Amino acid sequence: MTSADADPNQRQHLTVSGQDIDLLATELAQWLGTKVEADEEPKVTSITRPETGGMSSTTLLFDAEWSEHGQPAGGSFVARLAPDADAFPVFEKYDLATQFAVIAGVAEATDLPVPTLCWLETGSDNALGAPFFVMRRVSGRVPEDNPPYVFTGWLFDATPEQRYAITRHTVAAIAKVHSIDNPAERFPMFAGEGSSLRRHFDAQKAWYDWALANDGYRIPILERAFEWLEANWPAEPSDDVLSWGDARPGNIMFDEFDPVAVLDWEMAAIGPRELDVAWTILIHRFFQDIATRFDQAGLADYMRRGDVEKLYEEFSGHAVRDLDWYLMYSALRHGIVMARIRRRMIHFGEAADNDDRDDYVMHRPLLEALLDGTYSWD
After folding, report:
1. Helix/strand number for the chain, H first, E second
2. From 146, 148, 210, 279, which residue has the greatest number of CB atoms within 10 Å?
3. Hey, what's the torsion of the CAs at 163, 250, 311, 375, to 10 degrees?
4. Cα dihedral 173→174→178→184 (10° resolution)
């Protein structure tokens, strides 16, 4: 959901890639022939580019079949591709090798259900013209962003008890990610000198500059948030953990109400545990506030701040610190995402521009209330 003027009950078309889907199927089939011991070239029997997927990369869902020594083989797969050079990417860099390594590391260190990894291609001169990796596809359902789950869908139709089960499963998954021992040693690509929180914050500032400010798209409300965060810096951040990054139910696949796959590690980092706890609270409030803005009830009983805090302590043994600071930080981070996506939509003719740059942040009222100290949570 990225436009404040759109009907929230309707799926919005958002440009992710201009690549020809049939050509991709042919290229995938040829490439698979170099990866498996097939008797003859594999066949890609179906391929789709889901509109409900994220906008930071291209996701392909495909089925393939072949035979090995006369025996049938194949299955259902997911390919994740780095964004096209001309796709107005959300992130300056898109490191699929790191994502692949994080998924492998989480699978090794925990019993979290992550998809089975198959192959990684890091060169830009490979079969699909961009880095990509392939994993086995898991069947299930997710709370959708487009249209938002606060208006329609299986989670909207669930009982309060079923929604609370989703909250529990989500917080339990976050706690398991945070339980991984020696995260800086296990994931050295995220290690660095000094405070992990300062490194994380500086990276967000650099991303804001690249995505918006350096092109003349300064967003005053985001710059106010940066200033507030500096002025209210936590005195003693909690210990470092592996941060999932985009920790929320929308990145968990469920069989009924049981998790079967934990997805999307593109924002993973090393940092305080509150990064993930605050993010999952904030992202739901982003959607819930959309519902109330349209005079609809949404899901006020779901992913409540108090519930998440209590459950996180139950599952992890750690009480969160400075959560108001991290909620502000989450609102800032999500604001950069929203503003960059707004620029992208304008670029592709999917949204109109206006002179008030703060309107690039769809949750502007939420962020304004946080800055004013007037936002009401549970």
Report:
1. 11, 9
2. 279
3. -90
4. 100
Tens digits of per-residue pLDDT, 132-190? 999 999 999 999 998 999 999 999 999 999 999 999 999 999 999 999 999 999 999 99
For residue 81, list its beta bridge partners: 58, 132
The residues carrying an active-site annotation are 246
3-state secondary structure of 312: helix
Amino acid at 353: D
Asked whether the beta carbons of 49 and 26 are under 8 A apart, the reply is no
Q: Which residue has the tokens 């959309």?
A: 290
Q: What is the pTM of this model?
A: 0.92
Domains in the chain with CATH codes: 21-136 (3.30.200.20), 154-372 (3.90.1200.10)
- pLDDT for residue 212 is more than 80: yes
Q: Is the dihedral of CA 112, 114, 116, 120 positive or negative?
A: negative
How many C-beta neighbours within 10 Å does residue 304 have?
19
The pLDDT score that the predictor gives to residue 13 is 44
Residue 17: is its pLDDT beyond 60?
no
Say if CB 133 and CB 79 are below 8 A apart.
yes
Distance separating alpha carbons of residues 310 and 277, to the nearest angstrom: 11
